[in-house]
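Same chain as my last thread, 382 residues:
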Amino acid sequence: MSTHHPCEEEIAAIRESLAALGEPWQVGETRLSRLGAESRAVRLGVPAPSVAEVEARAELPGQMTEAALGAAGQQCTAPHAPSGELPRAFDLRRTCGGDYTTPVKDQGERGTCTAFGVVAVLEGTAAYTRRAAGLNLDLSEAHLFFGQGTPRQINGQDGAWPDDLLGDCVSTGVTFEDYWPYSDTGGGRLNPDWPHRVVHAEKMVDLTRDPAGIKHHIYGYGPVTACMVVYEDFFHYTGGVYRHTTEETRGGHCVALIGWDDEQGCWIGKNSWGTGWGEGGFFRIAYGEAFVEDYPEARPTTLGCTGTTLRAWLPAQRALRLFASAEDGRGWALLENLGWTRLSGGTSGAHQLALLADARAGGYPVSPYVENYELRMVQTTF
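reply #2:
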């Protein structure tokens, strides 16, 4: 009696195909490999594309590759860009002295990938636009998907489109993970105090079918969420630059793009299948592959936002530097994990500045309450 799992045959067939192609990527057993077809498919929360939409994009992969490679050296005027020109390679995990992504998460057996892709955009944008690599927000996918996206479920099933959910992030916002912890069962309850602990997205930007625009946005503002077609071999990806080796598709999936590399001809992505898949949960995918720049659907599917506003108490951290303006008397504080933040004006601001000065001199941290881009309250921590 054979003890081989069916996935071993799948992996062997993919390995043979990759060998014929010069082994552009690595295949092996991942945490999804031994799952049945249904358990794999349930993780794909974007509706599968129609044949007509796919056929209409037959020339797209080559066009997207050419456009992506042609963007190097273009002038970049975004306010948060590290330089004035797009480089040939960029990675939000390794820039400006820090890592501006948050840890890889696991959506479990639920079609909630779009919520994870959109939340990754908010978390990364909040850190990158503030140059606060230590900010490390942990926002609630449960609030976004079960609390806001569920009424729009497609055909009564799990799934959502990123333009809908990112629009919710602009209008309603997303609370923090501890106010509605994620479970793939859909359980849990929203903390009624959530309006006082929330992050909003600013200005949703449509980047669909625009590789140069995707690069400009990542370089200037942070991650981009994108939909892609998932082929059967993607479940067994362990590293390298992914290109599909089979024509068997399983559905659509939402991820976050966090960088690129022109020498390798690829985007760098962040998935939501845990760290036991891919390159520790991240992956590289060839330009034009799997329709990642323009998913086969007549709606925006590749999106970013230009900033975030916060309203929350944040974890205790040190005040590294303080500054008071001679012109308007407003104070500024450089906080360890938040970056430069403006203090509220008047008597309240003066009181905050005094507390921060004492904390800095004494070497103890403070807990900041931030509203939009302003430090409204400070609590000292002894």
